[in-house]
From TrEMBL:
This is TetR/AcrR family transcriptional regulator. Residues 41-60 bind DNA. Keywords: DNA-binding, Transcription, Transcription regulation. Residues 19-78 form the HTH tetR-type domain. The keyword DNA-binding applies. The keyword Nuclease does not apply. It holds the Pfam family TetR_C_43.
Length: 216
């Protein structure tokens, strides 16, 4: 039986309220992660969203589930940037555009770096998407080096160093973050060109598994 009209209306209102709560939580979490980092207390996010802690945990049973939901769109955009670069027939332009787009994402949402460089072993889809992005960027690096455009000693660890440096610079630049990021990235892209290569200290043995912390 479909139920009394008042009961149907009540259930619809409950669904609407639940969806509004979910969006408020996501908005509050996005802002909190950006300004206070991924370890901000869940209770603080609930207060910011104007909901009870129990309501937050009903929607997102763990910090991991909340973080991966908040940053799923950014990770998808990162993966898209890598895929678009892989489709570019110019290996150097592909490398340059991928670096610039990912670094611009860091500026747009400071919390993205923390999410990208954090292990979420239970979030299978999130981890799979990140690994795809990593593998795609590895291929972009390989092509640019094979074409003689990217310095031969560039490794994926250097990309991680770039992300960490860009994050630090933009975090300290305030409202000048975008300009500071563009300047830093332009400097480093020049240094990455094969024609500018000079001997460097050995690359640190970094991979995502080495630099990412875990929330578990």
């Amino acid at each position: 039986m479909p139920g009394h009209p008042s009961q149907i209306a009540e259930r619809a209102q409950l669904r609407t309220d639940a969806e509004h709560n979910r969006e408020r939580i996501l908005d509050a979490a996005r802002e909190a992660f950006s300004t206070r980092g991924l370890d901000v207390p869940m209770a603080a996010i609930a207060r910011r969203a104007g909901v009870g802690v129990a309501t937050l945990y009903r929607r997102f049973p763990s910090r991991e589930s909340l973080i991966t939901e908040v940053f799923s769109d950014q990770l998808a955009s990162c993966a898209t940037a890598v895929e678009e670069a892989l489709a570019d027939p110019d290996p150097w332009h592909a490398f340059q555009s991928a670096v610039e787009k990912v670094c611009a994402m860091q500026v747009a949402d400071h919390g993205f770096t923390g999410a990208f460089l954090t292990a979420f072993p239970q979030a299978v889809d999130f981890e799979r998407a990140r690994r795809r992005a990593e593998q795609g960027f590895d291929e972009i690096i390989r092509r640019a080096k094979a074409a003689g455009r990217l310095r031969a000693d560039f490794v994926f660890a250097d990309f991680l160093l770039l992300l960490q440096a860009n994050c630090a610079v933009t975090d300290g630049a305030g409202d000048r973050a975008q300009a500071a990021s563009r300047r830093l990235v332009a400097y480093l892209l020049q240094a990455f060109r094969a024609e500018n290569a000079a001997p460097l200290p050995p690359a640190p043995p970094l991979a995502l598994d080495h630099v990412i912390p875990s929330l578990s």
